[in-house]
Design a protein that fits this description.
114 residues, alpha+beta, Glutaredoxin, four-stranded mixed beta sheet, 5 helices, 4 strands, Rdx family protein, redox-active center
Length: 114
Amino acid sequence: MSTADKRFKITYCTECGYRDRADSLATQLEQELKAECQIQPAAEGVFEVEDNGVLIFSKKASGRMPEDGEVLKIIKGLAEGLSLEEAQSVAGPPPSAILEWFFSLFRAPSDSNK
């Protein structure tokens, strides 16, 4: 089977050390969905997942890496007839988790380590 025949394509940043995440996700998709994955190295912080050429997850667009099981939930949502936006919304972390992460970027480091 050529890489063009593979259903899923995972593009990851080699400089960021995302190879293990890409491998883990590919294994999960291959085991759960019985579909082969192409893993494509890239640069500049990229971590993207395509399903038959359709971008279903992008670290650049979301500002974060996918949660465990999130990509699989998006795929299952699409299979159930949800739009891509609906599937991403249902599968992603709750808004409070995103806000907590965002605000953590501006907090001073904890003094408890002294």
